[in-house]
Amino acid sequence: xxxxxxxxCYHNKLxxxxxxxxxxxxxxxxxxxxxxxxxxxEELIDLKMLQCKRVVNEALSTVDFVxxxxxxxxxxxxxxxxxxxxxxxxxxAERALAVARLVxxxxxxIDVNMGCPKEYSTKGGMGAxxxxxxxxxxxxLSTLVKGTRRPVTCKIRILPSLxxxxxxxxxxxxxxxxxxxxxxxxxxxxxxHPVSCEAIKAIAETLSIPVIANGGSHDHIQGYLDIEDxxxxxxxxxxxxxxxxxxxxxxxxxxxxxxxxxxxxxxIRYAVQYDNHYTNTKYCLCQMLREQxxxxxxxxxxxxxxxxxxxxxxxxxxxxxxTTRELDARRAKLLARSPEEAEGPAEDTSGIIKMAxxxxxxxYSPQITPKMCLLEWCRxxxxxxxxxxxxxxxxxxxxxxxxxxxxxxxxxxxxxxxxKLAEQAAAIVCLRSQGLPEGRLGEESPSLHKRxxxxxxxxxxxxxxxxxxxxxxxxxxxxxxxxxxxESPLEGW
Length: 493
Prior knowledge:
Radius of gyration: 26 Å
Pfam family, one: Dus
Shape: elongated
Domain DRBM: 370-435
Region (Disordered): 438-473
Number of helices: 18
Number of strands: 16
Mean pLDDT: 86
Low-confidence stretches: 1-6, 339-348, 449-493
Cofactor: FMN
Organism: Rangifer tarandus platyrhynchus
């Protein structure tokens, strides 16, 4: 996916601001649908990005930047390729340039975060910490402008004095950047503090490059017409909207915002179509619901532990099933085209007990999982702990696990979305073949319950009552590095 090297125009634009955990692909696409001209991804740290590999995901028609733990750090698609700006957190010019070159063929612009006041950004000298080091700012931006084919921007906050702020932005402009976004608050100020339209206006009147006004959601921006009012009050070229767009992305519509239920359903559809992790989907929906989180639908969302459950909470269960079938069919077609990649572990599979099983966490007690049951049974029988060997197919990124217990191997023939789920399925195969309880709702596992009761009766500070550490697990990697996934810790056990 190659974007031409023409500059992205920052004049008279409506822009979705970079927001941590919010600015992922579904939200960016939704904002574009509702009228945003440019969308920023969430801040992504340079060190994390430099560990990533660029992967073309044919099943989803996306380009993924995948970390060694197999987590998708950044996902983009053709729909946004001429509109998306990649924002990085960095404190080093060479690392910044390396990241820019990694992503420049898949994005429309490069931005450096120089305004985030949160500790996770500033502790490494990034974000608002850069505001106290103009020399470093100049080096980072100059290096990027000279070294990448994409327009470079930065996002800052105002300094304690207007004089220092104007001095800094003039120096930033001389680096050759295409535009500058200004959050009209100081580093220590938060949303409840008033945004300084006067400071943004002074900057806009001083510079010749486009100034993007940001920070108006709390005091100024309640609807589409307010965006233009905020632009005029700041004399800015464009406006960047954060929380007001997070609450309802249809704020960019000239006709006025759409009903929240409609917006959330459209967001969920994008999340399912692009395989967004359910925890991120759930987080964004919670931001939209806000005061409605205690409503019946809000409670269903709060209880949801998968994309399927989220869909069911919003009346999209049939959509989830249909979309999942389509994705599975697409993956199967891709696998059929490359049969050599569809094989399982590169070892002799004779003697493995196999069943077609998937782990559906809704059918199991939240306190007891199949892996826990299997481990407890091995301890009781004085057997060696179970050993899981898990592989991943590179084409569809699905997992299959084989568990060895008492020199016998067990495997589910169904591949799963995460390493943890695949291991749970393998554990179920072993337990069912032995006729053992597996932790399903309604089952009793006396030894596990007894252990819990004994623990409650003893002093938790007594070292004799400490549970032995969970065993390490052997994961062979014949294809690619394995991921722990982003599921809740309970899914791992």
